[in-house]
Design a protein that fits this description.
Blueprint: E1 9-10, H1 13-23, H2 27-36, E2 45-47, E3 53-55, E4 67-69, E5 89-91, E6 111-113, E7 133-135, E8 158-160, H3 172-179, E9 185-186, E10 189-190, H4 193-236, H5 246-253, H6 256-261, H7 267-336, H8 342-426, H9 436-441, H10 445-519
Parallel strand pairs: 1-3, 2-4, 4-5, 5-6, 6-7, 7-8, 8-9
Antiparallel strand pairs: 9-10
Helix pairs in contact: 3-4, 5-7, 5-10, 7-8, 8-10
Length: 520
């Protein structure tokens, strides 16, 4: 083809602008679109075929894109598609791609064509569980067993592998039919019942064995998923690893002196009591954290629901006003085009300009009402969420204070036991045998006291750090949430004002053009 004689290209702004203008609305709608500027995030379909593209680039702003054509180019690597999470249809056929990659974030993809490339392995499609149609024809897939990878795609109904080396194998069709039982079409043809029956008979036991293994793997995966989701919930509540002895155990992880002191006679019972009481306090934080998280989540959802409803109601009113104006405007334009009297036409144009100005004031007034309404909703939310977080922080600080009191009591009791044991050692009255490590502690009073104090400091530091971590994270979460809401509202408001100004500007420009043409 002659287009392949051109220089290889990278997708750039000029190419994108040209493609969107060619494929976008024409006529008056196209004029408005060009005047307002191309909003990449609003584009739903994009064709970049036959453009000699070598490298995929500059597509990250097309976040609403559902259909993308990149076929018949020179692309060697799949990249730059990570932000296109709404893609449903993707054509990369007739390129020079050697490996399937870069598609992980396209979970909504239903139709994928990689026809006529240089792919040898079917891989890296794990997240594309919604795939219905997959075309891999005219590639270099040589291992028939590679088809087994596609068993995980339970929605796959159409598969094209024609033109690959695997198709030369005598068992190709029955193998695919047996291991992909939900497939309806293979290589553009309906899989008939006779083929399915032959396949089932030939591979029955092998498929059953594979199904059992897949079932075990699925159960293990689901159990892991539940565990991960549970852990994530606890992290979101800022109380992970506080539902048991984890904090207590961490206090001794980096406490060599504590390990030695634990071997002193009488320490076992003291440690068990300490552990039990410490665990009970941690569980209180944990339970309260989950409860508070649920309440905060409900409050956040309520805020966004109220905000969306207010915005939707306001938008509906504005849309009706704009629609009525547009209908009236078109009628006025049609009437003015029939007026021959210059003065009468001037009067009509002035009247229409005044109506456009009035429309601007009305729509801006509606937007101002919405801004005030959303600000009131936000202030209520900010107060409520701050009270919730403040109350939880106060409760948590109280429990952590009890943890420190518990550690102080343990420290005092441990010191008493250690000094009493030292006294027995000095008087040679100790009946129990002690290890060499413990004997090194029981040299004199200063050594014992220093060891007990070092252990005590380590324990308090662990408690303090866990408290600081919890408080820092929940305060950061609240600040980030409030800032995000504020920023999004500013962005929404600016966009709405720009929309109003652009539309009214377009209307007035059209009237001015009519006025100018009459004077010529």
């Amino acid at each position: 083809m002659n287009w392949q004689q051109d220089e290889p290209k990278v997708i750039d702004e000029e190419m994108l602008k040209q493609a969107i203008e060619e494929q976008g609305p024409q006529g008056q709608a196209g004029d408005i679109a060009r005047k307002e500027g191309i909003q990449y995030e609003d584009v739903l379909q994009l064709r970049l075929d036959y453009r000699n593209v070598l490298k995929i680039y500059h597509l990250w702003h097309f976040t609403s894109l559902t259909k993308l054509q990149l076929d018949n180019n020179l692309i060697e690597r799949i990249e730059g598609l990570g932000k296109l999470t709404n893609l449903v249809w993707l054509d990369l056929s007739f390129n020079s791609i050697e490996a399937i990659e870069g598609l992980d974030s396209l979970a909504k993809l239903r139709d994928l064509s990689l026809f006529n490339n240089r792919i040898s392995v079917v891989e890296n499609l794990d997240t594309l569980r919604n795939l219905h149609v997959l075309s891999l024809g005219n590639n270099a897939i040589a291992q028939l067993e590679n088809v087994l990878y596609l068993r995980k795609f339970k929605n796959l109904r159409t598969l094209n592998l024609a033109g690959n080396p695997i198709c030369d194998e005598e068992r190709y069709k029955t193998f695919v039919a047996a291991y992909l039982p939900d497939l309806v079409y293979l290589d553009y043809r309906l899989l008939d019942e006779q083929t399915r029956e032959t396949a089932n008979a030939k591979y029955k036991y092998a498929v059953e064995g594979m199904q059992q293994n897949e079932l075990r793997e699925q159960q293990a995966t689901e159990a892991e998923k539940v565990s991960d989701e549970e852990l994530q919930l606890r992290r979101d509540a800022f109380v992970e690893f506080l539902n048991g002895p984890q904090l207590f155990n961490s206090m001794f992880d980096e406490d060599p002196d504590g390990e030695k002191l634990a071997l002193l006679p009488g320490m076992e019972a003291l440690l068990e009591s300490f552990k039990s009481k410490m665990e009970a306090l941690c569980v209180q934080i944990f339970d309260s954290g989950l409860t508070q998280h649920a309440q905060r989540k409900a409050e956040v959802e309520s805020f966004f629901t109220c905000s969306r409803e207010a915005a939707a109601d306001n938008r509906q009113k504005a849309a009706q006003i704009a629609a009525d104006f547009e209908s009236s405007r078109r009628q006025n334009i049609a009437e003015m085009q029939q007026i021959a009297d210059v003065e009468l036409l001037e009067d009509h144009i002035r009247s229409c300009q005044e109506q456009a100005s009035q429309l601007s004031e009305t729509l801006m007034g509606l937007e101002l009402q919405l801004v005030d309404q959303l600000e009131d909703i936000f202030k209520d939310f900010e107060r409520n969420i701050s009270d919730m977080v403040g109350g939880f922080i106060e409760y948590v600080q109280g429990i952590f204070a009890q943890c420190r009191d518990l550690e102080n009591q343990h420290h005092e009791q441990q010191l008493e036991i250690a000094l009493a044991t030292l006294e027995k050692v000095v008087k040679n009255e100790l009946e129990e045998e002690i290890s060499d490590d413990v004997a090194m502690l029981l040299v004199d009073k200063d050594t014992v006291t220093n060891a007990v104090s070092a252990s005590h400091d380590t324990h308090l530091l662990k408690i303090d750090n866990r408290e600081d971590e919890l408080l820092t994270r929940i305060n950061s979460w609240m600040s980030a949430l409030l800032n995000s809401i504020h920023d999004e509202e500013v962005k929404r408001n600016r966009k709405r004002i720009a929309e109003i100004r652009n539309y009214v500007g377009y209307v007035k420009d059209e009237l001015e053009d009519m006025q100018s043409s009459e004077h010529r």
